[in-house]
Amino acid sequence: MIRKKTWFPIVYMFCLTAFFSAIVIGFTQATGERVEANEKLAFEKAVLAALPGLYEENLSRMELHKRFTESVRPPDDSSGTAYTLRQNGQIVAYALPVSGQGFWAPIKGVIGIKADKKTVTGIAFYQQNETPGLGAEIAKAAFTEQFRGKIIAVNSQPINIKRPGDALGDSDVHAVTGATQTSTRLENIINTGLKEWLSQTTIKSSEELL
Amino acid sequence: MKPPQSKKSGLLIEGLWNNNPVFKQVLGICSTLAVTNLVLNTLVMCVALIFTLSLSSFTVSVLRQFTPRNIRMMIETLIIAFYVIIVDVLLKAYWPEMSSNLGPYVGLIITNCIVMGRCEAYGNSNPPAKAFMDGFFNALGYTFILLIIATFREILGMGTFLGLAVPYFSGPHWDKWIIMVMPPGAFFMLAVVIWIFRSIQAVREDKKK
User: Fold this and answer.
1) How close B152 gets to chain A, by Cα (Å)?
2) pTM (2 decimals)?
3) Are the Cβ atoms of B93 and A27 closer than 8 angstroms?
4) Residue B96's domain spans which residues?
5) In chain A, what are the domain boundaries?
6) Chain B residues touching chain A at CB-CB below 8 Å
7) Which of B36, B113, B163, B184 is the S-S candidate for B150 at Cβ 3.0 to 4.6 Å?
8) What one-character DSSP code corresponds to residue A103?
9) Is residue B7 domain-resident?
10) How many domains does chain B have?
């Protein structure tokens, strides 16, 4: 009987693997574009949410993408790594992508900053894998809404994430209860990103003056 | 462990109660602990497991006449991985938020002992239709225990159920038990659930005698 042959298991395994792999590869190929589009869209949504007056709930995927391509300009020399929102050629706000290590996995987000480079217009996260119910709350409105209108301080700590219940200054927001690790790391991500970008762009603008 | 009964209703009782994968066999504990802090995440995870477990068991059973015994575990792993990847890709494409919520746990269904366990213990030696039902009911047994744990964890820890505020628990008079949604809470809840269900089982068996 064929099953007793010594080569049978090898051939059998080979054929089955080829068969299942073919289906999986076909399947991944078929949905690959959509997966990629999802990732891009998540980023575009975050940029819109961080900038003032662009984001609305319940926008469809197409509308989101359209709004992004129409109103947001990709980074150029004057804005460093930040995307820009312009009105009549004048920069109204910047959208600065920041990223770094969270408690479990990298956190990626976008900070919206007014043209004065001092006022925060909003913050949004498009990739995070923090503990659901705890660290993951950073992506919810209750946390992100706090950032609107905060002033970027001109010291080593542009934005402070303080313990829930502490008194807040112009540059402070409250952390998520029970998510100390995520909050500390997030504070670091935001501040490193902001400081780097500020020093980059101010050097550039002073060069322009010369 | 009792020998599997032949009737379909027997499979139901075996999977959900007598031989429940979580509180009787204590399998699949990794995901039980990991995904039960929000009910919605748990629900999606369980649907993924129902799909994977019933179809893997079915496929293993279809191929059981041809599969050489010495490589059967490789074949089983291959089949399980195949279904899990399908679920993972589907979630990534059509429900990206959920995919990122569940993180690596969908992929880790491949190593869920319940799946391999059912393929080995039942799929390998029974006809396809029965293997499918056995997988399905075992996955249901897993699902209902996980939902109990998740419901308690979410209500006690967050004051919500499926993201909706629950009266009293979300209110000012209830101090949320944050620990319930953190990893230690899972251990406490799982222990309590196993304790309660095993006690009920013991009482029922005593009565039979």
Assistant:
1) 14
2) 0.77
3) no
4) 12-208
5) 43-209
6) 37-38, 41, 63, 66-68, 70-71, 74-75, 78-79, 82, 85-86, 89-90, 92-94, 96, 100-101, 103, 154, 157-158, 178, 181-182
7) B36
8) S
9) no
10) 1
